[in-house]
Design goal:
heterodimer; A: about 220 residues; mainly alpha; MetI-like fold; 8 helices; flat; B: about 230 residues; 10 helices
Chain lengths: ~220, ~230
C-alpha cells in the first residue's frame, strides 16, 4: 500500500523546498510583523492607517487569491501601468506572498507582546538614559520574544500548511511533487496520503521545537510549582 | 485597468459568490453537527471514545486542507472498484460532494477542538450545582454544559467560520466555480488577471466582514447578562 514505486526521492526533494519556502516566508513574516506592530502602535496616523489597512485586507482575503493575484496579476499590472516586463520566479513569488500574508498575522502577535511588556520596564529604560534603539534592542525585544513565541508558533503551524498552496503556481514543493507522483503511478490515494503524513511529521517536529524554544525563552522566569 | 471586463463579469462573479456562500453554509452546518458529539467524546473519560477523536482531529488539523481535498477527490479513484461495489462511487465522482466532504471533515476537527476548549473552561461549580439540582447525563449537557461552552467558544468559533469561508477558495482547484473558480476561468481566457483577482478579493472581503458583523451581533446578544447596565439607553 505504501509502495510508491521509487517516487520517494521526488517527495523528498519536495520536502526540502517546502521547508525552504516555509522558513524564508516565516522570516519575511517576522520582519513585516515587527514593522506592522510598530505601525499599529505608532503615534503617526499615516503609519497606523497603513498597518490597519494591511492587516484588515490581508486577513479578509483567501491566501489562494493573494497568491494568484501576486503571481499572475502583478506582472500584468506592471506591464499595463508602467510598461515594465518582469518575469516572476515561482519561488520568490511564493515566499513573498506567504510572508506578506502571515506578516499580517504576526503583526497582531507582536502588537500583543509589546503591550504585554510592563510599562515600568520602558520607564526604567528611559530613566537610565537609553535612546529608542537601545531601548528596543536591550529591553523590549528580549521580553517581547517571550510573549510572542506561542503566537509565532501558531503562525508557523498555519504557514507551513499554507505553503501547499504554492503548488498552484507550479513550484515543485511537496504538494506539487505528490501530484506528479500521483499522476505517474496511478496511485493518487497512496501518494497524497504519504504527503499528508509528511506534513504531519513536520507539524509534530515543529511542536517539539516550539516547546523547547518556549522553555528556553522562559528560563529566567520563576514559577510556582 | 480594464473596467469593462469587470462590469461584464459581475453576474458571473456574483454567481460564484453564491456558490461560495452555499459551500460555507453547508459545511459549517454539517461540521457543527459532527463537532458537538466529537467534542463530547473528546472530553470523555473512556479512552475508546477519546482517542479516535483525538487522532481524527490531529490528522485533520495537522495536514493542509488542499491535501485533504485531493485525497478525497483524486484519491477515491484508487478505490473505484470497492466504492462501486458498495454503491457510493457516484458521490465520489462529483467534485461538489468531495468538496463538501473535505470541508466538513476539516471544520468538524477544528470546531470540536474549539468546543472542547469551551467545555473545559466551564467552572466546575456550575456542573456541581446542576448535579445538586438532580440533572445528569443528557439533561446536564443540554441545559448547562453545551450552552455555556458555546458562549465561551463563540469568539474562536467566529474565527473558524471566517477561515472556512476563505478556505472554500481551494475547491476551485477541483473545478468548482466559486468566486475564485470564476475569477480564474475568466482571467485565463481574457488575460485580465489583476482586474479579476482584485474583484474576487473585494467580494471575499465583503463576505468575510459580513460574517464577522453577524457573528459579533450574536455574541453581543449572548452576553447580555455580562454587561453592566448602562445608564444611557
Amino acid at each position: 500500500m505504501m509502495n510508491i514505486r521509487g517516487y520517494g526521492w521526488l517527495l523528498w526533494e519536495g520536502v526540502r523546498l517546502t521547508i525552504a519556502v516555509g522558513v524564508l516566508s516565516m522570516a519575511v513574516a517576522v520582519v513585516l510583523g515587527l514593522l506592522g506592530a510598530w505601525g499599529k502602535l505608532s503615534r503617526s496616523w499615516i503609519a497606523r492607517g497603513i498597518a490597519g489597512v494591511y492587516t484588515t485586507v490581508i486577513r479578509g482575503v483567501p491566501e489562494l487569491v493573494v497568491i494568484l493575484l501576486v503571481y499572475y496579476g502583478v506582472p500584468t499590472l506592471l506591464l499595463d501601468i508602467a510598461n515594465i516586463t518582469i518575469d516572476l520566479n515561482p519561488f520568490i513569488a511564493g515566499v513573498a506572498t506567504i510572508g506578506f500574508i502571515y506578516g499580517a498575522f504576526s503583526t497582531e502577535v507582536f502588537r500583543g507582546s509589546y503591550l504585554a511588556v510592563s510599562k515600568g520596564q520602558i520607564e526604567a529604560a528611559k530613566a537610565a538614559g537609553m535612546n529608542r534603539v537601545q531601548m528596543f534592542v536591550r529591553i523590549l525585544l528580549p521580553q517581547m520574544w517571550r510573549f510572542a513565541l506561542p503566537g509565532l508558533g501558531n503562525v508557523w503551524m498555519v504557514l507551513i500548511k499554507a505553503t501547499a498552496l504554492v503548488s498552484v503556481i507550479q513550484l515543485p514543493e511537496l504538494m506539487r511533487n505528490a501530484d506528479v507522483a500521483a499522476r505517474s503511478t496511478h496511485k493518487p490515494f497512496t501518494c497524497y496520503f504519504v504527503a499528508s503524513l509528511i506534513y504531519l511529521m513536520i507539524t509534530i517536529v515543529s511542536m517539539l521545537i516550539q516547546q523547547r524554544a518556549e522553555a528556553w525563552a522562559n528560563r529566567g522566569v520563576r514559577r510556582a510549582a | 485597468m480594464d473596467i469593462a471586463i469587470i462590469q461584464e463579469n459581475i453576474p458571473r462573479l456574483l454567481q460564484g459568490a453564491l456558490v461560495t456562500v452555499e459551500l460555507t453554509a453547508i459545511s459549517v452546518g454539517i461540521g457543527l453537527c459532527l463537532a458537538i458529539p466529537f467534542a463530547l467524546m473528546r472530553v470523555h473519560r473512556n479512552p475508546l471514545l477519546r482517542i479516535p477523536v483525538y487522532m481524527f482531529n490531529f490528522y485533520f488539523r495537522g495536514t493542509p486542507l488542499l491535501v485533504q481535498i485531493f485525497l478525497i477527490y483524486y484519491g477515491s479513484g484508487q478505490f473505484q472498484h470497492f466504492l462501486t461495489q458498495i454503491g457510493v462511487w457516484t458521490f465520489f465522482r462529483g467534485a461538489w460532494f468531495c468538496a463538501i466532504l473535505s470541508l466538513t471533515l476539516n471544520t468538524a476537527a477544528y470546531t470540536s477542538e474549539i468546543l472542547r476548549g469551551g467545555i473545559e473552561a466551564i467552572p466546575f461549580g456550575e456542573v456541581e450545582a446542576a448535579r445538586a439540582c438532580g440533572m445528569s447525563g443528557f439533561l446536564l449537557q443540554r441545559r448547562i454544559i453545551l450552552p455555556k461552552a458555546f458562549r465561551l467558544a463563540w469568539p474562536a468559533y467566529t474565527n473558524e467560520v471566517v477561515f472556512l469561508l476563505q478556505a472554500t477558495s481551494l475547491v476551485s482547484i477541483i473545478t468548482i466555480m466559486d468566486i475564485t473558480g470564476v475569477a480564474r476561468m475568466v482571467a485565463s481566457r481574457s488575460f485580465a488577471f489583476y482586474e479579476l483577482y482584485i474583484s474576487a478579493a473585494v467580494l471575499y472581503l465583503i463576505l468575510v466582514y459580513a460574517v464577522l458583523f453577524v457573528f459579533r451581533k450574536v455574541e453581543y446578544r449572548m452576553s447580555g447578562h455580562l454587561r453592566s447596565p448602562s445608564l444611557v439607553s
